[in-house]
Amino acid sequence: VIPSPRGHDGYIGKYDAPDGTVVDIGVISTGMGAPSVDIIATEMIKLGAKVLVRVGTAGAMQKTLSIGDIVIATGAIRDEGTTRQYMPLEFPALGSAAVVTAMCGAAQMELEDEDEHTEGGAQWIYDAGPVHTKDSLMAREFKFGPYGPEHKRYMEVLEELGCLASEMEVAMLFTLGQVYG
After folding, report:
1. How much is the pTM?
2. pLDDT in tens, 133-158
3. Among 33, 75, 85, 167, which residue has the fewest nearby CB atoms (within 10 Å)?
4. How does DSSP assign 107-158, residue by residue?
5. Which structural domain, as residue segments, surrounds residue 116?
6. What sections of the sequence does the record tag as coiled-coil (predicted)?
7. Domain for residue 26, yes or no?
8. Rounded Cα–Cα distance for residues 125 and 19 (Å)
9. Does residue 15 sit within a domain?
10. Which residue from 70, 56, 58, 55 is spatially nearest to 125, judged by alpha carbons?
11. Domain tally for the chain?
12. Which candidate, 76, 77, 57, places its Cα nearest to that of 67?
């Protein structure tokens, strides 16, 4: 355990992969929103982290998704301000093809295993595609404030275009991955 005065305690250890490889692994909370991810993920990269994977919550934007389903983000709509400090807004925030492919493969294997060994089959699905990263949960997601009607239409357009989910961190993580390689 690596304690943090900011409340972002970290855990480091080793993972014995099924192929016999031993992998160094660390787990840390990134907090909420792009600015917090910017700080924590950049510190991890500067300390030598090679691959960053974020596990968190998101609001489904497609009717095919249910509570408990898994969304694997392939790219992120940059509807926040922090990533603009790193690259032009017109440049997309994209996930690593190798990491996305590995995550989809692992999800598919787990789904097939659960289908085979669980009475009634797996009770979840996974999907891969774009997600929406926003600054304000209350304004964008719940349409609070004077721009409520505009937020409603904006989110409808993203849904129509196939955006899978809305959250507050992925665009920053992908941007840092692109900037730092």
Report:
1. 0.91
2. 999 999 999 999 999 999 999 999 99
3. 85
4. HHHHHHHHHHHSTT--S--EEEEEEEEES-IIIIIT--STTHHHHHHHHHHH
5. 56-180
6. none
7. no
8. 26
9. no
10. 70
11. 1
12. 57
